[in-house]
Structure formats: C-alpha cells, structure tokens
C-alpha cells in the first residue's frame, strides 16, 4: 500500500458512517436517556485496526456528528463536549491494544469504562441541577450515586453487548488484518 495514512483515514470515514447508520437501531435505556445500541462496534473495530490516535479522533468526530444528526440533548457546549465528543473519543482508547488478539475483550471493556467515566463526570458536574431524586423506582439524593446508577443502567448492557460482538468478530478481524498488510 502506497499511502497507509490515506487508507486509514478512508477506513475511519467508512466506519464512522457505519456507526451513524446504526444509530436508529436502538433499545431505549432503562433510564430516561442513554440508549442501548451498537454504534460503538465500528468504533472499536476502527481503534483495534488503526490504533488509539485514529480511534480517539474518529470517536470525537462520530460523537459530534451524533449530537448534530441524532438530535442530541445537551446543556450547552460543555455538555456537547462531555456527553458526545469526549465520551465517544474515549471509546477510541481501546486502540492502545492495537491488533492484539489476546486483548480484544479487554480493550473493548477499557473503551466502555472510559466512556462511562466521562458520562459519570458529566452527570456529577453538569446534570446535578436537573438530577431527579428518583430513578428506576429508587430514591437517590446523592449526585455521585445518581450518576453511577443512571449511567450504569445503559452503559453496562452496552459494554456486555460490545464485548460479546467484538469476541465474535475476533477471527474475521484477524483475517482482515492479514489482508490489509
């Protein structure tokens, strides 16, 4: 391949587009917000194949586009940055284990966990003013506990789904990596 950088950028654009195409396929989360979906899967594939730098940059682009196209709910620029741009950029952290077959599940977990942390920070800093004291039938007065429960109710199923799907994609990705070299 003559221009690997151009190839990687093209692949990133295609996988970002795939994530955008998966946006309408979602299950409403148990909390009043946060859906269960498959949009992170192409971002994990992208990070796994191209590394953390491409993964983080592509995740940030996807997060911004998701906010714009998907009618993102935010409380101004800090919310757009935390809930969309930085949260999906965090998924790209999974690229730290670039093309290591033994670490596909670990890298997926790490990407989901870092995204959860970003949402948690957003919950305790930005959404504290609107956090209800009741969620999923439980009364919660502490904003830290509220943010953990709220974000955990949709991030935990998303994490489990992502780990399962990425495990199933292990062999196809391994073959694809051999073709791409």
The biggest beta sheet reads:
2 strands, antiparallel
Structure summary, number of beta strands:
4
**Strand arrangement in the largest pleated sheet:** 1-2
- Approximately how much beta-strand content do the residues carry? under 5%
Report the radius of gyration as a whole number of Å. 17 Å
Order of helices and strands: HEEHHHHEEHH
Q: Please bin the fraction of helical residues.
A: 55-70%
Residue-averaged pLDDT: 86
Overall 3D geometry? globular
Low-pLDDT stretches are: none
Query: First CA to last CA: what distance?
Result: 8 Å
Annotation field: number of helices: 7
Given helix and strand content, the structural type is mainly alpha
Your description of this structure?
The chain is mainly α. Helices cover 67% and strands 4% of the residues. The protein is built from 7 helices and 4 strands. The chain has helices at residues 4-22, 40-50, 52-69, 77-91, 104-125, 143-168, 170-179, and strands spanning 26-27, 36-37, 134-135, 138-139. It has a two-stranded antiparallel sheet. Strands 3-4 form a two-stranded antiparallel sheet. Helix 1 runs parallel beside helix 3, helix 4 (77-91) packs antiparallel against helix 5 and helix 5 packs antiparallel against helix 6 (143-168). The longest helix has 26 residues, at 143-168.
Topology:
Blueprint: H1 4-22, E1 26-27, E2 36-37, H2 40-50, H3 52-69, H4 77-91, H5 104-125, E3 134-135, E4 138-139, H6 143-168, H7 170-179
Antiparallel strand pairs: 1-2, 3-4
Helix pairs in contact: 1-2, 1-3, 2-3, 3-4, 4-5, 5-6
Overview features:
181 residues; mainly alpha; two-stranded antiparallel sheet; two-stranded antiparallel ribbon
């Amino acid at each position: 391949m003559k221009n690997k950088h151009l190839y990687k950028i093209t692949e990133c654009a295609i996988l970002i587009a795939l994530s955008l195409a998966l946006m309408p396929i979602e299950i409403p989360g148990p909390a009043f917000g946060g859906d269960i979906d498959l949009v992170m899967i192409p971002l994990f594939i992208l990070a796994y194949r191209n590394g953390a730098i491409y993964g983080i940059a592509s995740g940030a682009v996807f997060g911004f586009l998701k906010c714009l196209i998907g009618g993102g709910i935010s409380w101004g620029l800090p919310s757009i940055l935390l809930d969309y741009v930085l949260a999906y950029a965090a998924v790209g952290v999974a690229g730290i284990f670039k093309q290591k077959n033994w670490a596909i599940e670990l890298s997926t977990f790490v990407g989901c966990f870092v995204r959860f942390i970003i949402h948690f920070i957003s919950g305790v800093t930005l959404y504290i003013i609107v956090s209800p004291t009741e969620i999923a039938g439980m009364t919660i007065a502490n904003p830290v506990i509220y943010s953990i429960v709220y974000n955990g109710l949709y991030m935990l199923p998303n994490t489990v789904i992502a780990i399962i799907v990425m495990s199933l994609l292990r062999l196809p990705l391994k073959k694809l990596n051999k073709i791409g070299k």
